[in-house]
Amino acid sequence: MFDAETTKPVTDTAKHLPADHPPLPKRRIGILVGNLGTPDNYDYWSMRRYLNEFLSDRRVIDYSPWIWQPLLQAVILTKRPFSSGAAYKSIWNHDKGESPLMTITKAQTEKIRAALTERYGDEVTVDFCMRYGNPSTKSKVQELTAQGCRQILFFPLYPQYAGATTATAIDEFFRSLLDEKWQPTVRTVPAYFDRPAYIEALAQSVERAYAELDERPDVLVASYHGVPKRYLMEGDPYHCQCQKTSRLLRERLGWPETEIVTTFQSRFGPEEWLKPYTVEEVARLAETGKKKIAVIAPAFSADCIETLEEINEEIRESFEEAGGESFTYIPCLNDDDAHIAALVEAIEDNLVGWVTPAA
After folding, report:
1. Which domain range does residue 291 map to?
2. Closest Cα to residue 335, out of 299, 305, 303?
3. Read out DSSP for 170-223?
4. FRET partner for 62 with CA separation of 20 to 30 A, picked from 53, 79, 226, 348?
5. How many other CB atoms are there within 10 angstroms of residue 51's CB atom?
6. pLDDT in tens, 265-317
7. Cα separation of 248 and 201, whole Å?
8. Residue 83 CB neighbour total at 10 angstroms
9. Residues 256 and 330: beta-carbon distance below 8 Å
10. Residue 318 pLDDT more than 60?
11. Which residues, 6 or more positions from 140, have their beta carbon under 8 angstroms from its beta carbon?
């Protein structure tokens, strides 16, 4: 084994330290996976803290703080915690006292850890953080460095890159290094929207879902989280990467173009967002005779409020009120083995030069 920073053989340095030197943990490589975040609970104040952190992020809402913050603090955060809290309560994992996103991210991390430990032994340590809420990115960076991680690979769990998701997660990761006396060497995993293993995992989830249905859906709606159209015009690649994911999925399934529709959900505020809007498009499909649809959410690595509540309730309701008859939601990839294999493959590709498999 070699030191990835010096290419010299790693030796036991402890015996060369003076007696009063602080102890040094064994040198490791940290893998930190990051997801969006979750409130600690669905009560008013938990929701307000979470929404305040989220909606104060200039990557998410880039309006002038002089205009936005008075509106956020005086109007939005007095009302929205109640409605958002009710939505979270409807999907909450009451047995574990946490949101489904937290439950799923923990399961994903455990499986990733098991796979990497089997391959690299105790040379690596794996943990997760949230961009908003707990566990914070900063707390996990501190834990990893305290455990001896002189290199950290940060992996934002967003298949498609967007400034409002991937970039803000990376921003927070680098901000977390500011207080480290001895900063680790770091890398970030790029968006994996077109990696064959990810597309294969998506395709398998569609095939499994369709195999369980009595009747084949007329259309598969690939619903991605929306962003303002202005972001696309300003250079954000998210829209293009979503379109490519849908195309690659369709090509892997061997379907004609008419059987997959790409849409965007979760619009917020008055300006135009990426279109078509999912809630409107499913109604249009029903009105034009597409009475059986399935919906998949390829932009989400784990089921969360936007899939379990928005898709399964609001979007489903829009389809059925417009005359739709059969609505099937295909769950996110979550901790499915094919998904975990795709994530592990991306991690291993980005660990090259840092660590070699255990003998």
Report:
1. 196-330
2. 303
3. HHHHHHTTTT-SSPPEEEEPPP-TT-HHHHHHHHHHHHHHHHT-SS--SEEEEE
4. 79
5. 19
6. 999 888 999 999 999 999 999 999 999 999 999 999 999 999 999 999 999 99
7. 12
8. 10
9. no
10. yes
11. 32, 127, 128, 129
Supply 142's token pair.
């501190």
Structure tokens at 293: 């649809």
pLDDT tens column, 84-135: 999 999 999 999 999 999 999 999 999 999 999 999 999 999 999 999 999 9
CA 56, CA 177: separation in Å to the nearest integer?
21
pLDDT in tens, 15-31: 666 766 566 667 899 99
CA separation for the pair 34, 154 (Å, rounded): 7
Q: Which residue has the tokens 């059986």?
A: 292
Question: Tokens standing for 176?
Answer: 């977390």
Distance CA 16, CA 238 (A): 51
- C-alpha distance across the termini of the chain, in Å: 10
Secondary element (H or E) of residue 79: helix 77-91
Which residue type does 330 have? I
Please, what sign has the CA dihedral across residues 50, 30, 298, 63?
A: positive
**DSSP code of residue 25:** P
Assessment of whether the complete model's pTM goes beyond 0.85: yes
**175: in domain:** no
Residues 206 and 321 in one domain: yes
CATH of the domain at 242: 3.40.50.1400
Query: Is 86 inside any structural domain?
Result: yes
Confirm whether 264 is domain-assigned: yes
